[in-house]
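Case study 2.
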Amino acid sequence: SSGINAEYGGAQTGYAKSHLEWLNETLVSVENRALIIGHIPPVLSLYSLHHKQAAKTMWRLQYIEQFQKIFLEHHEKIMGTMFGHEHQDTFVVEEVQDVKMGMFMFPALSPIYDGQPSYGVMALHKSEETDMMTIRNIFTFHTWLDYYTAIKKEPQFNTYRSFGEVLNLKELTYDGLKNRTKNIIKESDGFKTFNGLKEKIYQERTVPIMNPHTFYCYTTNTKIAEFIKCIENFGIDGKPYIVNSV
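Prediction:
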């Protein structure tokens, strides 16, 4: 939201209140499962965590909490949520009142931030057990724009990776993603898998380079206070993340 409206909090969250009201009203009227698609995700900024060691959210706390309230009320109707802005593949699965709230972040077609153009494709299918649409997989396609520009040829997009293969999941359920985040701590398996892809990276910030505990806390918390508590439980000093975010 970028409009200026004093009632809703100024430029950054100009229409946030009205957008969330619309979202809730729309989900009330939806009979089938829905995908929520947005640009800026209601999560911690991975860029700030990685590059600035600062804990910053991209939404104001009151709107994150309002979004969570809407998600909790309608979670059985919500197939998934997709966002951009961070120019990278990643995900967050936070458990709120025994309900897992998952969000996927996608890379960018723009080569800004020294990246290469890329995009994600979400594969859906109808579950035989529940007869409902679910997310089977997410595929990332990329091109080496610098290379094709140098040889003066039309850029070709190729499959870069499959979330399902990287995370060893047949279906991208929130339960499955949550279990994989636990593996990041127990075995560092998921983290090593993502980290190993740095050799083939096409966007500079596609794969976060941080310790497994910090990455785990990022993928399981959307609020600053909860993130700080999480990393401190692993013996990581949370003070710099607070100081640097001011």
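The mean pLDDT is 80.
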